[in-house]
Amino acid sequence: MNPNLSGFMKIKCILKNALKKVRNKYLFNKKAKQIAAWKDQSPIFILGTQKTGTTAIAALLAKSCNEEVTLDLLKSIKDPAWLLRVSYGLQPFSDIVAKYEKDFSKKMIKEPWLTYFYEDLVTLYPKAKFVMVVRDPFSTIRSVLNRLQIPGDKARIDQDAYTDLTNIKIWKLALDSSWSGRPSEDYITAMAHRWDIASRVYLDNQDRFHLIRYEDFNADKQAAIAALSTALGYHSHGDIEPYLDIQYQVKGKRDTDLKAFFGDENYQKIARICGDSAAQLGYTI
Asked: Whole-prediction pTM value?
């Protein structure tokens, strides 16, 4: 303590430090109780990379099972840096769960970004169930680029030239795979790596997951949701007929010639990075 402080200031400093210690102890005990409570909860996490149909599937699944659902951790979009802080060990994942406790309190939680923190989810929620939504890598990446109005055949792009990347900064992390543990040469290889990382989460942990392919869902939505609901232990299904055609996200251009959209070089980059995982998921590349 500074010896030059007056008696009053010394007392004030002592009280301030004492209150700080009490507050820190309170917060520590509160978090310990939260973590203990999470271990007894059994939420259902719907994971998968962006633009694989996770929102539509999660919304219809919740309707079928008559459960509350979080369709996105919307508040986290205002603070995209949490992905980097947690990935690089600068902040515990439990801080994110505590901060967005209301979102995590729902029975079903859909958030594509959580796919890359699967191990953290299992640690905090050992009784949780997991759904993985997958879609063919070319259509997935094309749909993201459609959403951001970015062409698929460029060698490099200037991210500052695209409005959505400037206004919604978390999208920049969708074009970067280095924070997920794989270096990326360009925006196409980054997105291919992110698709493959998400797929490997499922392929390496199949005993913990229920898989649903977007293509199978799109072919017969009612049958796919009914089968998934049953697999998750729900044998009484709600009527989802009125909700089948709701467009939950900006629609991509499905009639796109994918080889023309990406160009040969970028198409081959995706095939090289995603080929093995895609084949194991039943996709022909």
From this structure: 0.86
> Over pLDDT 70: what percentage of the chain?
85
What's the pLDDT tens digit per position in 15-54? 566 555 555 444 445 667 888 999 999 999 999 999 999 9
Q: How far apart are CA 49 and CA 47, in angstroms?
A: 7
The amino acid sitting at 130 is F
Is the CB of residue 147 less than 8 Å from the CB of residue 164?
yes
The Cα–Cα gap between 83 and 70 comes to: 19
DSSP one-letter string for 232-245: TT--S----GGGTT
Q: Could you give the CA distance from residue 239 to residue 52 in angstroms, rounded to a whole number? A: 23
Report CA torsion sign: 81, 70, 225, 53. Answer: negative
In what side-by-side order are the strands of the sheet with 69-70? 69-70, 108-110, 44-47, 129-134, 209-213
